[in-house]
Amino acid sequence: MPGFIEGTLNFFLEGNKHDYYYKGCQEGVFPLDGQLNLPERTYSYLLERFSMGVAINDSYNESRKYISELFGILLPQSSLQKISKKSSAYFEEYYKEKKITPAEDGELTIISADGKGIPIKENNDNVNKKRLGRGEKNGKKKMALVGTVYNVKPEFDAENRVFKPENKKVWAFLEDKERTMSLIEKDIESRLYNINNRDIVFIADGARGLWGLKNKYFPEAVEILDWYHMSEYLWKAVYVFYPEGSKEAFKWIEEMEVKIRNGKVVDVIKGLRVRISKNKIKGNKLKTLNSVIDYFENNKKRMKYDEYIRKGYPIGSGNVESACRYLIKDRMERTGMRWKFPGAQSILSMRATFINDDLNDYWNYYMEKENFRLYENMNKAA
User: What is the pLDDT of residue 380?
Assistant: First the structure.
């Protein structure tokens, strides 16, 4: 038996039981529909809102079961997918218009960005195969650009640096990565409006594409290579010289981190080159060390950690790393999941509004936009 809300809507939607007005060959209107703000489809906004609240956190199949238990309505999975696509239609428009809580004077504004893969279904011919041929896959991962913006107070205690992000926002886009940067740009404009301290810090790994986008959208921002990614390259190098897990390996890492933290990345690069020459390193080991040297050479202008620490800047991109996990991995990389581009982007968008604590506000915005789209002629007549 349908729930009370759906039954009430069906009363209004059955046949032509309410007045319809039209003029000439123009499309007519049902005034009562506009007054009630009825949606285009047969599902109420309340049911759509509840459906999205469930689907952005759980699989479509599990969401269907939960909705059925609560409302007595077994929605087809295709309906949930359509609701998701329809509901996310105004996502970018909403965030481009949204006024962000301004930063406080003295706070730093931090931007972090990173890529995160999503399993995408490209070739439907493979989906129903019991056994794939050599090299065949049901889907490949496509990179989404995840971006975050937040504020922190500078932390000048070099021995105990604890940053507490405030007013954090996160977004992600699959096909056009610049859409992520565009929303970050709008956020920054709103966040720093009438703020004296406009210090912006951009933290990311060594991906050249990220720094290219940073230079395009935020050329004045301070560039910082994420400390964790830098450290990963030290670990690549150390196992060329010492056994994995050895005391010598840990001691070498500590020594190199101290040097880099003190702004002596050039000394680290020179030391690696001396070791290559002195030990006559060749083959794969040489290839590994050269990749580390190239990484440090390409990013040394972003490795002035002594200066960053002195100014109270954070040097890690842990916030965007965690955003990649709870925005994408926790929902979209479960066992067996494969996505098409439109469906993946819809969930990314709606999940972002939820994580940003904007879902209720966005939903009101969405209903207003839909009301105007569906009943524009009637609104003009009024």
Answer: 57
| One domain, residues 214 and 250 | no
Asked if the structure places residue 371 within a domain, the reply is no
Q: Clarify whether residues 203 and 322 are in a common domain.
A: yes
**Which has more pLDDT, 128 or 78?**
78
Number of domains in the chain: 3
Q: Which among 33, 59, 87 is the end of a domain?
A: 87
Regarding whether 130 and 103 lie in a shared domain, the answer is yes
The verdict on residue 68 lying in a domain is yes
Cα distances from 275 to residues 255, 281, 286, 334, in angstroms, run 15, 8, 10, 44
Strands (E), 179-281: 200-204, 222-225
For CA atoms 39, 45, 48, 49, the dihedral sign is: positive
Question: The domain containing residue 161 runs over which residues?
Answer: 94-225+316-329
Residue 307 lies in a domain: no
Q: Which tens digits make up the pLDDT trace of 174-201? A: 989 999 999 999 999 999 987 776 789 9
Q: Which of 184, 115, 173, 116 is nearest to 150 (CA)?
A: 184
pLDDT of 22: 54
Residue 371: the pLDDT is 87
Q: Please report how the helices 283-299 and 265-278 are oriented relative to each other, as an axis angle in degrees rounded to 10.
A: 160
- Residue 18 burial by Cβ neighbours in a 10 Å radius (0-12, 13-18, 19+): middle
Q: Distance between CA atoms of 30 and 305, rounded to whole angstroms?
A: 65
Residue 209 covered by a domain = yes
Report whether 180 contacts 145 (CB < 8 A).
yes
Chain-wide mean pLDDT for the chain?
Answer: 85
Q: What is the three-class DSSP state of 55? A: helix
Is residue 48 located within the same domain as residue 18? yes
pLDDT in tens, 200-235: 999 999 999 999 999 999 999 999 999 999 999 999
Distances (CA, A) of 220 to 198, 214, 285, 360: 10, 9, 38, 35
Q: Which residues pair with 120 in a beta bridge?
A: 140, 339
The answer to whether 26 touches 20, Cβ cutoff 8 Å, is no
pLDDT for residue 277 is more than 70: yes
Q: If we measure between CA atoms, which residue out of 264, 253, 277, 266 comes closest to residue 307? A: 264
